[in-house]
Specification:
Layout (H helix, E strand, L loop, with lengths): L2 H13 L7 H13 L3 H13 L8 H9 L1
Helix pairs in contact: 1-2, 2-3, 3-4
């Protein structure tokens, strides 16, 4: 339950740093870190949801919600 560790795990899965490329797991880790209050994770998750990045479907309402926090 360490927010920075979850954020870094998300980045590793996104940019293939010591892990396999797995966008689904990356978004899961961003979501967990954001829920724990990690501001960079909140921003990244908001952008992912707003624009549909990392092979994730767009969700404008949730994306804006994360960006406003």
């Amino acid at each position: 339950n360490h927010d920075e560790a979850r954020y870094r795990a998300a980045v590793c899965h996104e940019v293939v740093a010591g892990t396999k490329k797995d966008y689904r797991r990356s978004v899961q880790f961003y979501r967990k870190a954001a829920a724990l209050g990690h501001t960079e994770a909140m921003h990244k998750l908001g952008i992912v949801l707003l624009y549909g990045k990392l092979n994730h479907h767009k969700n404008l309402k949730e994306g804006l919600s994360w960006l406003k926090r």
